[in-house]
Fold this protein.
Amino acid sequence: GAHNEKIMNDQDAIGGWIVPEPMDPEGYRDAYFAFLRQYLVHRPMEFLALEFHKLKRFWNVFPRTNVMADSAARNRDGLISLFSYGLLLPLSLLGVSLAFRSGFRPWLLVGWVLYFCAVTLITLGNTRYRLPVEPVIILFASLALHRAWESWGARKGHGARAG
């Protein structure tokens, strides 16, 4: 459903999932390998674009909401996402940078996130598949907030409190 000609021509669905035409299991397998051969050999840039769309969907701040929901519900969900994950993601990136600059090498945590990015490239992009890496994202974001709090306390003359 994530690797077929139909999804490549649908800009709203690309990177996600479209139910392919019904066929027997062998037909699905043959269609999948024909798609891969066609795009990897003859249209590799379009295949890379598909992979980019999957990652974009995986990390999207505004997940796809129920199309049946009214616009007020979609707007509410968008605001909630913006002020939660929309703040969490940049803080997490800052936290990764701070962790590496401080001498701590969080390769296992970064590897965990990269593993799920790779799984997304193999399957499809979906924000719910990001759930297993969100604890790591929160951990790095908390490091950034902790450093900001320490910096603010030092500027205010309180210094960092020993704990």
Notes: The two ends are 52 Å apart (CA to CA). The chain is about 65% helix and 0% strand.
